[in-house]
Amino acid sequence: VQLQASGGGLVQAGGSLRLSCAASGLAFSRYGMGWFRQAPGKDREFVGRISWSRGRTIYPEAVQGRFFISRDNAKNTMYLQMDDLKVEDTATYYCAVDRRPEYGPARPELAHIEQQYGFWGQGTLVTVSS
Q1: What pLDDT score was predicted for residue 106?
Q2: Are strands 9-12 and 67-72 parallel, antiparallel or unpaired?
Q3: Residue-level pLDDT at 85
Q4: In angstroms, rounded to a whole number, what is the distance separating the alpha carbons of residues 41 and 4?
Q5: pLDDT value of position 107
Q6: Do 4 and 22 contact (CB within 8 A), yes or no?
Q7: Are 96 and 3 within 8 A, CB to CB?
Q8: Model pLDDT, residue 32
Q9: β-strand pairing of 9-12 with 124-129
Q10: How far is CA 77 from CA 25, 82, 94, 95, in A?
Q11: What is the DSSP string of 1-53?
């Protein structure tokens, strides 16, 4: 399994950016996926998740209403649309795929647990300037 994250860059506060995560080596449509981020000197943080079925999404409060995850199963690609970016969104963003197919957390509040994600992309840097 390989995940390739792309789309990072420099953007001004209030701007938008769309990240992509291209997956290969798996039956993409059968896997839930997530986005995480890690700012310098901080722990990795959950940004959101999309289910393998029906494309249901889960977001933490920090990005709710500003970040939107989608997926195109025909292209084996997941997206993270980030709007109204803030300086505190500056981080390296990582995509991840579930450890096993047709899986979903028992409760939405468990979506952030990293152990359920078995494969990770290399990360793409997002820098938001003031």
Answers
A1: 84
A2: unpaired
A3: 98
A4: 24
A5: 87
A6: yes
A7: yes
A8: 96
A9: parallel
A10: 12, 16, 14, 11
A11: -EEEEE--EEEETT--EEEEEEEESS-GGG--EEEEEE-TTS--EEEEEE-SS
Residue that is written with structure tokens 């996926």 in the block: 33
Report whether 58 contacts 46 (CB < 8 A). Answer: no
Residue 104: how many other CB atoms lie within 10 Å: 17
Pair of tokens at residue 37: 């981020």
Residues 6 or more apart in contact with residue 57 via CB below 8 angstroms: 48, 49, 50, 51, 68, 69
Tokens of 34: 């997530």
pLDDT 10s digit of each residue in the chain, 130 long? 999 999 999 999 999 999 999 999 999 999 999 999 999 999 999 999 999 988 999 999 999 999 999 999 999 999 999 999 999 999 999 999 999 999 888 888 899 999 999 999 999 999 999 9
Length of the chain: 130
Nearest to 70 by CA among 19, 23, 106, 6: 19
Using the structure block, give the residue that is written with the tokens 């997956």: 23
What separation in angstroms does the CA of 92 have from each of 59, 98, 101?
A: 17, 20, 26
